[in-house]
């Protein structure tokens, strides 16, 4: 005996569930494209560490607490390490909480770096938390987080 | 491709840790901005920066759109021997721009 496929589907899902699914769909459509696509801060860090445990300390992230212009925010990351062949910082990565993409920059260091200290300028789309993660040569991960209040945001200025 | 500005100390002592600064003129267009005609402005960013010291790679960075226009990177190196320090920036299209500086170690 053949059932009407539409009836069978409706019976399987249920009216309320069907409505709820529709609402979620609408919500997803109404969000900007990047808001759906970007991984969360923790997911981005997990991708970088490969699921390893991230400890607090040994890294310092300097970020101004109050940012006037989010288009260029100076940051400095310093990791405590003797930078010898046996014990050095391999990578330093910076992640953000609310930009369209979670990654900011990844630095690759060697013992020949001498110090584990890097500076750059980044964009912040809104007030948010920024996290720096350092990977040591023994495979451990250390992190530091800082938050900034942004008064003029990056990425939203009108070009017309 | 673009103008660059690198800052390497001219002279350093053997084993001294020197600070290197590198900047390149580049819009670092994120691809998320909307232009006057209502469509997205195409993404155009510097993806990778590398620094070699007498041919050996000593520092590199992967850049994402969250790095500001005219990317500036400062880092440190141990001055080992006199020679050249070369810098390379690679963009989305694979185009590269290089700069170099010499250092005298005594």
Automatic annotation (TrEMBL), chain A:
Residues covered by the Ig-like SoxY domain: 48-155
UniProt-listed InterPro entries: SoxY, SoxY_para_1, SoxY_sf
Protein name: Sulfur oxidation protein SoxY
Organism name: Mesorhizobium escarrei
From TrEMBL, chain B:
InterPro entries found in the cross-reference section: Ig-like_fold (IPR013783), Ig_E-set (IPR014756), SoxZ (IPR030995), SoxZ_dom (IPR014880)
Pfam (any one): SoxZ
Protein name per UniProt: Sulfur oxidation protein SoxZ
Spans traversing the lipid bilayer: none
Domain Sulphur oxidation protein SoxZ: 10-101
């Amino acid at each position: 005996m053949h059932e009407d496929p539409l009836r069978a589907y409706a019976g399987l899902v249920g009216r309320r569930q069907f409505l709820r699914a529709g609402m979620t769909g609408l919500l997803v459509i109404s969000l900007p494209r990047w808001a759906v696509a970007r991984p969360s801060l923790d997911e981005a860090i997990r991708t970088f560490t490969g699921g390893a445990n991230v400890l607090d300390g040994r890294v310092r992230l300097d970020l101004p607490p109050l940012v006037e212009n989010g288009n260029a925010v100076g940051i400095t990351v310093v990791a405590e390490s003797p930078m010898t062949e046996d014990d050095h910082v391999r990578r330093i990565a910076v992640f953000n909480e609310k930009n369209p993409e979670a990654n900011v920059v990844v630095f690759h260091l060697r013992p020949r770096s001498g110090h584990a200290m890097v500076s750059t300028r980044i964009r912040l789309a809104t007030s948010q938390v920024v996290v720096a993660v350092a990977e040591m040569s023994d495979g451990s991960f250390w992190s530091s987080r800082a938050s900034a209040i942004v008064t003029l945001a990056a990425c939203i200025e009108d070009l017309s | 491709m673009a103008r660059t500005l690198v800052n390497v100390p001219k002279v350093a002592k053997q084993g001294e840790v020197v600070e290197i600064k590198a900047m390149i003129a580049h819009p670092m267009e994120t691809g998320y901005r909307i232009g006057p005609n209502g469509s997205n402005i195409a993404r155009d960013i510097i993806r990778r920066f590398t620094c070699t010291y007498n041919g050996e790679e000593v520092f590199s960075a992967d850049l994402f759109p969250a790095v500001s226009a005219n990317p500036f990177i400062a880092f440190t190196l141990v001055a080992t021997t006199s020679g050249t320090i070369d810098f390379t920036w690679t963009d989305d299209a694979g185009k590269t721009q290089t700069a170099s500086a010499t250092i005298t170690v005594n």
